[in-house]
Amino acid sequence: MRNAILLTLDTLRRDALGCYGGAQGQTPFLDSIQPHCIRFMQAYSGGPYTQAAFPGILTSSHYLDHGKSRQLSPKRQLISEVMRQQGFETAAFHSNPYLSAFFGWNRGWDTFYDSMQDEVTDECPYIKSRVLNGKVRDWLAGRRDRSRPFFLWVHYMDVHEPYVPAPEYIERVDPTLCIAPAEMMRLFREVVLKRDVSDPDTIELLRKLYLAHVREVDDSARELFGIFEEAGVLAESLVVVTSDHGEEFGEHGGLSHDGKMYDELVHVPLLIYEQSRSETLVAEHVVSTLDIAPTILHSLGLRPAPAFQGRPLLPLQNYASDGAFGECYDKHGSTEKGAEKEVHYYRSERFKIIYRQRTETWELYDLRSDPHERTNLADASPEADRLKEKILPRVGRQPR
Description:
Helix content is 27%, strand content 20%. By secondary structure, it is of the alpha/beta class.
């Protein structure tokens, strides 16, 4: 039986990858493995920030299904629980507080590292990906039963704000850029945290610092795949690479990742890697990150989980797309305060409709002719009423 590996890259915009059209070449490794990948061009996240996105990835359920609670609801079933029940060894290595044992995300893992006991700094408030790679190497080397298949989840935080990349990565993005860590932290405090988009030159500088982190993460992914190769597990593993959400750089008046549903936040990369594959396969239909967990189970010949709401993506010819949903609370900044209203979106093959409960307003975009979501057709398109019916039953459904 094969292994399964899930690599999630926090805050990674889809268009930062060369294989998705990124023009600055900051992902040479992820681009180089494309001949071994199925690349999903229209993959959508369940939400625009971690708390809203990860229920979809790890539990194949929507964020608002079980009420507002910081704790992971016992009604949700983690893929780690499903796979351990079916004989897999399970291990997780990450450094995201919202996904920590404190909030219940440690269920079903034989090994679970969330870094919450480790020291971090203001400039780097997480454990770096290279350190996580070392822990993965040690875990692989220390496995007692090498014949037992495993499910491994690794989550990198390095792309996330604050943007304080190492000089070598800044140079790879812009050799003329010279900026001290203190200045990068000032930009974080005075621009990013305040969502100040008044100066286009500053926004472009922030984008370059972000891309330097992307370049660093690509190097870490290269190292991680090398660790798998050295351990002799890559050839017998299904590897899924994705992001929980993207990042905004002023496209719709903000920065970071707040409660918005535009493509810079919810249109994410999704790659399925198999070493035995020798030619890139590109899938154009709309899929959801809720489909990831069912795909892993199906691809490894495991029993499906009845609680999972997504569907297996493979084989591609059997996947009938019904669009993608996303939902979140209308938060602004890094925390949810409890009084937020809901935001929902539905993405069909051509359109995206967004509902904002706070203002009771609708937005509708034709993504074929308006990929940057500039022209709201909600009051003009005959599609609006039909697509509203997709959203309305989902509003206010969660128990209080």
